[in-house]
Amino acid sequence: MTTLIQPIGAGIALTTASIQVIGQNATRQALWFHNRGTVNNIEIAPAPFVAGNAGSIVLFPGAMVQFNFPQAATCAWNAHMVTGTGDISILEWPA
User: Fold this and answer.
1) What angle do CA 74, 79, 49 make, to 5 degrees?
2) Domain containing residue 41
3) Of 27, 32, 25, 24, the residue nearest 7 (C-alpha)
4) Are 18 and 50 within 8 A, CB to CB?
5) Residues 59, 42 contacting (CB under 8 angstroms)
6) Is 50 domain-assigned?
7) Which of 52, 70, 79, 90 is most exposed by smallest CB count within 10 Å?
8) pLDDT in tens, 16-37
9) Considering the domain boundaries, does residue 77 fall inside one?
10) Would residue 1 count as lying in a domain?
11) What is the CATH number of the domain that holds 50?
């Protein structure tokens, strides 16, 4: 019998201010971010970088990015809306 590891999901409300959306977890196996919106872009960045500055990744409306390697999956991440407000969906696979 195979044991399936189920993800932990969260939705985080965002504004144009960069905030931490998920903390560091040294045992995390994978991490997915999804922009559920239909209009505004989201920028994400690994901590200690501020989302919106150099080192940010842009998530266009409907876009998703996944990190399945320990260096990116285990660190804390920051995010913000480029304009307006919205939310980001996060799926985390713990060890």
Assistant:
1) 65
2) 8-93
3) 32
4) yes
5) yes
6) yes
7) 70
8) 999 999 999 998 999 999 999 9
9) yes
10) no
11) 2.60.120.770
